[in-house]
Amino acid sequence: MSVDKSPVESLRDRKRRQTRERIIETAFALFMERGFDVVTVDEIAQRAEIGRTTFFRYFGDKQEVVFSTEDDFLRALIAAMREAPAEPLPDLGRALATSRRLLLALCTEAARTPDHYAVYHRLVTRHPELEDRHTRKTRHYADLLEKHLIDHGTPPATAVLAAQLTLGCYQTAWRLGGTDATAVLREADGAFDLLLGTTAV
Predict the structure, then answer these.
(1) pLDDT, tens digit, 9 for 90 and up, residues 99-153
(2) What is the number of alpha carbons within 13 Å of residue 134 lying toward its C-beta?
(3) Which of 31, 94, 115, 172 qualifies as a cystine partner to 89, CB 3.0-4.6 A?
(4) 8 Å CB contact between 126 and 120
(5) Cα–Cα distance measured from residue 91 to residue 73, given in angstroms and rounded to the nearest whole number
(6) In this structure, what are the phi and psi dihedrals at residue 90, rounded to the nearest 5 degrees?
């Protein structure tokens, strides 16, 4: 009989997770009801039934709440990089094949929480300051991809090109898929089909 060796969540950790999730859920609801700009930290704390000090134990400001899954995406990307075959990627074709797998791993992570992603997409597209941070976040992922390719033997110029083409595929999926995380995953795959010329004309 197999034994589940996954770590058991302590009572304290479970309460912390539940409080964090309640803050996020409450904040997103308020942002959609009234708009990101006018909602205050005090309002979020009051509706979540926590103190202002408790809010700041979890988030530095309300913008951090919007990007609360950023660490999850980073972990998903790093995990996909570690699981990628340890093979040389000396040319653009192989670099793009690896880049495709890594991008789809990110999109799959988004599809795990479709409701959260839908609200996130609406907030980012409605508020320039959030869109700016989203853009910087995706550029950071492209930088990580570029480094990964170089570490696996891709010439720097080719690695830069592959990373930027991958970023373009993601941006295409972001626009075409809209608030539907599953559609974003599908559109990202489709964008690579077009890029690589595998779609029948």
Answers:
(1) 999 999 999 999 999 999 999 999 999 999 999 999 999 999 999 999 999 999 9
(2) 18
(3) 94
(4) no
(5) 27
(6) -80, -10
